[in-house]
Design brief:
Layout lengths: L12 E2 L1 E6 L5 E6 L2 E5 L2 E7 L2 H8 L2 E6 L5 H9 L8 H5 L3 E3 L6 E3 L4 E14 L2 E13 L12 H4 L2 E4 L4 E4 L16
Antiparallel strand pairs: 1-11, 2-3, 2-6, 4-5, 5-10, 6-9, 7-8, 9-10, 11-12
Length: 187
């Protein structure tokens, strides 16, 4: 086996689009990859210093959407362009924006599924960023992306993940097994 130094290579990494309002109510979005489930009702995201962290000083509410193959180009764009320096950043994405129904944050209608969130804790906060722990207040899913059982269908969404090894995006593939079930054959 080849050995590598410590690197941020947990796979797969989600491509999370974080939506916030600035102090004037203007929507902003950023792309973040270092995040995941914290527990049953909370998420954690590692954030550097961004317009998003400035916005979260003013308002604890935000949204988290999952980037897809259809949203990939604009999702990458909001990760490489700062809202601090590009006032027309959101206009360039072409995303339709409305206020989320349960939190004071923007909802980008182009994404199939969005988490409505509220800050619970900022860990190791410094001028360079922090770890954000947030409560999931609600989950919204476009009905076009529901499975026959009425729950979100990840395959229909064409969600992408970030490959930190090669700096690429990869679309999630097909279902290959049933969790908490297939392993029972070894009992």
């Amino acid at each position: 086996m080849k050995s590598f130094a410590s690197k941020p290579w947990i796979l797969p990494q989600p491509v999370l689009i974080i939506g916030t309002y600035d102090k004037n109510g203007k929507p902003n979005a950023m792309n973040a990859a270092w995040g995941g489930q914290w527990d049953m009702h909370e998420i954690v995201i590692s954030l550097g210093s961004h317009a998003t962290t400035d916005n979260l000083k003013e308002n604890d509410d935000f949204t988290v959407a999952f980037a897809t193959t259809e949203t990939m180009v604009a999702s990458d764009y909001v990760g490489i362009v700062s809202g601090r320096n590009t006032p027309d950043k959101m206009e360039k994405t072409g995303w339709n924006v409305e206020k989320a129904p349960n939190v004071n944050a923007p909802l980008f209608k182009v994404f199939p599924m969005t988490l409505e969130c509220r800050v619970k804790q900022k860990i190791d906060e410094s001028e360079t960023g922090y770890y954000l722990v947030a409560e999931i207040v609600n989950i919204l899913c476009d009905e076009n992306y529901l499975a026959e059982d009425g729950n979100p269908d990840v395959e229909k969404m064409k969600i992408i993940t970030y490959d930190p090894v090669h700096h690429t995006y990869i679309q999630l593939g097909k279902t290959v097994g049933k969790a908490f079930s297939d392993g029972k054959t070894l009992k």
